[in-house]
Design goal:
Radius of gyration: 24 Å
Number of strands: 17
Oligomer: single chain
């Protein structure tokens, strides 16, 4: 194994500019470090003491370390050492944290930790592309990054299986601790394999992984240099109570206001008819959200006399339910420093085709499987899981009759574990850390206004100029929770790396639409700007035909 020595030498300025080294290097300096096969095999059975992990554990152990050849079937990552291990809990009855660390044989002296999704519960391998990276780009591992991920400290049967929440240590790991524990275990392995620590350590994630990215920056600023957070579930407690509120809107009064899929489409079709053209291009993408708020009125869909007469109109009860979904939710007390969960974007282009309002006007008895939960509507189901297994810890709790005010103290305690809303970023900014934050305008899993609220909190705390020095926020028109009319793909991680290592702050970015047969691109505008079509007819598919405007 070849190790680096740190000494200044002007002759390596070009390597510094290319690789963002934190210091010049003298004779013997290598911009990459090579891993030998014996370095990999020597990791087998490695015991990591609890003292090497900065939060309470019973230590960790490497269960397997296998060299994966570049030519191995299905391998797209080049040659690397695949390390699987577990971090042992303090309480022997609690579950382990399973983790994977991938060590490239040619290492660029950087590490990238990847986040999970939903309630986690399955191993994030670090073997794939990251975030919204285009699929035709080399993976981070292929590019020479050490990559790592975990299951966050439990195993789940489906994406929103809340059973783990009955265990205190598992809840702590999921809510905020596993990312630090896995980071520290990985650092021990990296030092053992390469003889040194990384120059830079990054985190990227979407949804729950986006939450974990913000946790990395806010709770563990000394460990990370930059994070990318896509549509983050940063305030899970508040988010899931807001989600439960959607279920209440649908199922109140015996389901009188329930909006079935056909009527959901009635609403969204009317929204697009009123709003699609407001950005200058009629292309199935609503970019001018503020204009849409003024252009669409749900009362235009009211049935005669407000009585349900079929799928071509909405009853008064259904209009009331739709308005509740599209209005802010207020629990009546502060949750992690916030008293409001923002409205869902039902009247702004969210399609609710995957995250539906359920298959019937009454919820069916909950089962621990995805199919039955989706049948009740995803938002209601995730709220129900949190109420049953994390807040009340009573699997028989009726979520619809749950009174959050009676559970204020427990909700406050849970939010201190799972929500990063009011965990400040001063230390991360002071060390030079950078954040790229994104959200799609039509996300119906996590309302885009949730990320607006997070960003605006940072602006209030830091002032706009200071916030601009370390955080960039992009709203992506037509993009939902990883899918939508505009399925955005762009290399946000490279933009982050350029900012951290070269001081090149990102401005307008370009995203491509990854939907089948789509051949179009759009500019991504720093919020609150949005892309307005200013080109000639026939050029609507080109990002160059749009201008970022804020009016």
């Amino acid at each position: 194994m070849k190790h680096t020595r740190w000494m200044c030498a002007i002759g390596l300025l070009a390597a510094w500019m290319i690789l963002g080294a934190s210091a010049c290097a003298g004779p013997g300096y290598k911009s990459v470090i090579e891993l030998q096969g014996s370095d990999c095999s020597n990791l087998q059975g490695l015991a990591i003491p609890a003292s090497a992990i900065g939060l309470p554990t019973s230590g960790a152990v490497v269960q397997s370390a296998l060299m994966v050849e570049e030519t191995a079937k299905g391998n797209i990552n080049g040659e690397f050492c695949k390390v699987i291990g577990i971090i042992k809990p303090v309480n022997p009855e609690s579950p382990n944290i399973e983790f994977e660390v991938n060590l490239p044989t040619v290492w660029n002296r950087r590490a990238l930790q990847m986040g999970g999704g939903g309630y986690d519960g399955s191993l994030v391998t670090g073997l794939t592309t990251e975030g919204l990276q285009p699929e035709n780009m080399p993976t981070p591992l292929k590019r020479g990054f050490v990559t790592l991920g975990s299951d966050s400290g439990h195993k789940s049967q489906w994406a929103f299986d809340g059973l783990f929440g009955l265990d205190d240590e598992a809840l702590l790991n999921y809510g905020k601790q596993s990312i630090k524990k896995v980071h520290d275990a990985a650092m021990h392995i990296i030092r053992k394999a390469y003889g040194r620590a990384p120059d830079r350590f990054y985190f990227t994630g979407v949804s729950q992984g986006g939450h974990e990215a913000l946790d990395a920056a806010a709770r563990y600023p000394e460990e990370y240099d930059g994070v990318v957070s896509h549509f983050p579930a940063y305030n899970i407690t508040m988010l899931h109570l807001g989600s439960l509120n959607v279920g209440r809107a649908m199922y109140a009064n015996g389901g009188a206001g329930w909006i079935k899929p056909a009527k959901t489409k009635l609403i969204t079709d009317a929204v697009y008819a009123a709003c699609d053209k407001l950005d200058g291009a009629q292309d199935g993408i609503i970019s001018n959200v503020e204009g849409c708020d003024m252009a669409f009125d749900v009362n235009s869909l009211r049935c005669p006399k407000g009585v349900d007469t079929g799928n071509t109109c909405l009853s008064d009860a259904q209009i009331t339910a739709a308005r509740k979904v599209a209005s802010d939710y207020k629990p009546g007390f502060m949750i992690a420093g916030a008293d409001t969960f923002p409205r869902w974007a039902l009247f702004e282009g969210s399609q609710f085709q995957v995250s539906t309002f359920g298959k019937a006007p009454k919820p069916t008895p909950s089962h621990q499987d995805e199919a039955s939960s989706l049948g009740n509507g995803l938002l209601f189901s995730v709220g129900e899981q949190t109420v049953k297994y994390i807040i009340t810890r009573n699997p028989n709790q009726d979520a619809l009759s749950f009174d959050e005010k009676q559970w204020k103290d427990r909700i406050t305690a849970v939010a201190s574990i799972m929500d990063v809303t009011n965990v400040r970023l001063e230390k991360f900014r002071a060390k030079g850390g950078k954040i790229i934050l994104t959200h799609g305008t039509i996300d119906d899993f996590i309302t885009p206004h949730n990320s607006v609220a997070y960003y605006e909190r940072q602006v209030r705390q830091f002032t706009q100029p200071v916030a601009d020095s370390f955080i960039r926020f992009y709203m992506i028109p037509g993009f939902g929770h990883g899918f939508g009319p505009f399925k955005a793909k762009f290399d946000s991680f490279q933009a982050l790396q350029d900012w951290v290592e070269r001081g090149k702050a990102p401005g307008q970015l370009i995203a491509a639409d990854a939907n089948p047969n789509a051949k179009r691109s759009r500019p991504l505008c720093p919020w609150p700007a949005w892309p307005k079509f200013t080109g000639a007819p026939g050029t609507e598919n080109s990002a160059a035909s749009y201008k970022c405007v804020a009016d």
